[in-house]
Amino acid sequence: MKNVADVVHIGELIAVSTVFKLNPFQMTMLLENGEMEVFQNKETFHEKYGKMETYDELDDWCELNNGKIFTKLK
């Protein structure tokens, strides 16, 4: 990801970092290194990973109330 600030608001980053038990700096680094993804809505997430109960290729994922989905890859 080239510029995290273009995709993620700082408030979203802080909220999600507590879910993943990381600090915002760690989250930013994971996003920049491609080890974490952000999807703007559920549809784009389902296009990539499908609709399943569990996602074996993901370490964890989190959906915000604005529809954005953050995923942490294994």
UniProtKB/TrEMBL annotation:
This is Uncharacterized protein. It comes from Bacillus mesophilus.
